[in-house]
Amino acid sequence: MAVVYVIAPVFNEEGNMPRLLADWATLAARLAPKRFVGILVDDGSSDGTIAAAEQHRGELPVTVLRLSPNQGPGAAFATGFQHVAPRLSEGDIVVTTEGDNTSRIDVLCTMIDRLEREGLDVVLASPHAYGGGFSGTNGTRILLSHGGSAFVRTLMGLHGINTTSSFLRAHRAGAILALQRRYGAKIIERAGFESMVELLIKCVALQLSISEVAMKVDSSARVGKSKMKLAKTIVGYLSLLKDRPRWTSDTPAKL
Asked: How confident is the model at residue 220 (pLDDT cuts 50, 70, 90)?
């Protein structure tokens, strides 16, 4: 039976756990006959995130991995990738997503369907694609998102991709294994939010097939504020220029 592994980094997300796990239960029901496996990577939370996860997960198969101290979403996703590496089989899917309720289960189901039906390697959820957008997000953030995405695409050579920073992505198992053969079991080196751009650079370097599904981001569903620090993230994006030649210069691994 094919398995869908869903990896979410969480850092002080106690208030978001009830809805996140309710959404995961909905996803698990909609995935049948596929099997759902949730992986929460606790990134050094100091609140009741883990207790809330244990309280609300019910019968869901959810594994909690712990990092301490707080290291950043890239480190959390890297830990999740390393965890699933020996468990992946042909037909499995690995999903990365937010832990703060800004992703949408219906969009994810569409992404998984396209991944399988069209034989794609990676499908991204994009608020910048036609039909996507933002709700409950201030205008400055939206402007920075559009401008930052365009800047990063140009700077990193990620042409034809509308979004570079979205956490919500679906990957074919073979794509994850190819990335691990080339870049190691953790795949990602960067610990911060720039890790999502790093991962895209590596997917393009391996010539993986990438497509996008439009998504409307509703930030009003989030309890608490975003953990992203704008200045730190911009510096992180710029620093990718130093490592990009190393990530893209070798012969691509075979799928």
From this structure: low
Domain 3-248, CATH among 3.40.1190.20, 3.40.50.300, 3.90.550.10, 3.90.79.10? 3.90.550.10
DSSP at 15: G
What distances in angstroms separate CA 171 from CA 62, 89, 97, one per listed residue?
19, 13, 12
Asked if residue 112 has pLDDT above 60, the reply is yes
**Rounded Cα–Cα distance for residues 150 and 126 (Å):** 13
pTM of the shown model: 0.89
- Provide the residue ranges of all domains of the chain, joining segments of one domain with +: 3-248
The pLDDT, as a whole number, for residue 137 is 59
Give me the percent of the chain exceeding a pLDDT of 90: 67
Residue 26 structure tokens? 């909905």
Cα separation of 123 and 215, whole Å? 12
Best CA proximity match to 255, nearest among 7, 88, 36: 88
Strand, helix or coil at 77?
A: helix
Q: Provide the pairing of β-strand 3-10 with 122-126.
A: unpaired
Question: Residues with Cβ < 8 Å from 251, sequence gap 6 or more?
Answer: none
Question: Amino acid identity of 20?
Answer: L
